[in-house]
Design a protein that fits this description.
24% of the residues lie in helices and 24% in strands. It has helices at residues 37-48, 76-86, 129-132, 153-163, 204-223; strands at residues 12-17, 22-25, 28-30, 52-57, 69-72, 92-95, 102-104, 123-125, 142-149, 168-173, 185-186, 189-192, 195-197, 202-203. An eight-stranded mixed beta sheet has the order 5-4-1-6-9-10-12-13, with helices on both faces. A two-stranded antiparallel ribbon has the order 2-3. Helix 1 crosses helix 5. The protein is globular and about 65 Å long. The relative contact order is 0.17. Bound molecules: cytidine-5'-triphosphate.
């Protein structure tokens, strides 16, 4: 079954995916272990249901699924600008990217040469892209974030749900072996305002298709007036 079965077609979805790269000098950067697999699988899940997907992605080795609009970015600042430019045209925004929280204050224009025994890097905070969606970007659609945690999964995810004004946080415990960053499998906790759901662990592909349906249902519950759509079947939370 495709992600969009029983869903209104033609929903516009923005997805961020992958890691960011924060340059130290022309040949070095700070990054993280995100593979981008979850975001790309989600993009495929939405697109195969007949929806329009814009994928804003940091560098990965993955192929962009056919039929998906794609904006490649490197840094957190570039991802912020790309999202800011596009998000107001979207119905749903899903932030699966592992965005660097800090970036070097003064990236060097030349390769940094080794000098002393130690080196100190000064890092400054990047802007929180998901945290800017409701306020700075004025996004009013369905807003979904991810939370990669190593402890207190539900409490930390719920703090992000409230702090970033999301409709759903998809939380995963990245300290568990065999799931998360580099893996093909994932196990998530869905944290909504007032309740949680725990779908069974699955391949990232199967889980992504399940999540695409879940997010489309959530969007439909929030943005469709049932009296306007006689085929609308409310999904219990
Ligand atoms: N996120 C973002 N921009 C950032 C940092 C995070 O858009 N600069 C988004 C991620 O894509 C994810 C969510 O915010 O959807 C949570 O990211 P995470 O790294 O788990 O949390 P942080 O907000 O960075 O908080 P912390 O690292 O302190 O847990």
């Amino acid at each position: 079954m495709s992600a969009g079965c029983n869903q209104t077609r033609g929903v516009r979805i923005l997805i961020t995916a992958g890691p960011t790269r924060e340059p130290l000098d022309p040949v070095r950067f700070l990054t993280n272990r995100s593979s981008g697999k979850m975001g790309y699988a989600l993009a495929h899940g939405f697109q195969s249901g007949g929806h329009s997907v814009l994928l804003v992605s940091g560098p990965t080795v993955l192929d962009v699924p056919d039929g998906i609009d794609f904006i490649p970015v490197e840094t957190a600042a570039e991802m912020y600008e790309a999202v800011n430019h596009a998000i107001r045209r979207m119905d749903i925004a899903v932030f699966a990217a592992a965005v660097a929280d800090y970036t070097p204050r003064h990236p060097s224009g030349q390769k940094i040469k080794k000098t002393g025994e130690t080196i100190t890097l000064e890092l400054v905070r990047t802007r929180d892209i998901l945290g800017s969606a409701r306020g700075d970007f004025g996004f009013t659609g369905t807003l979904v974030g991810f939370a990669a945690e190593t402890e207190q999964l539900e409490a930390n995810a719920r703090a992000k749900l409230l702090g970033k004004r999301c409709d759903l946080i998809i939380a995963n415990d990245v300290s568990k072996p065999g799931i998360g960053f580099d893996s093909d499998h994932n196990e998530v906790l869905l944290v909504y305002p007032g309740y949680n759901e725990a779908p069974p662990a699955a391949s990232k592909h199967d889980l992504a298709h399940h999540l695409a349906r879940t997010i489309l249902n959530l969007h439909q519950r929030q943005h469709t007036n049932p009296t306007d759509d006689p085929s609308f079947q409310p999904t219990p939370p």
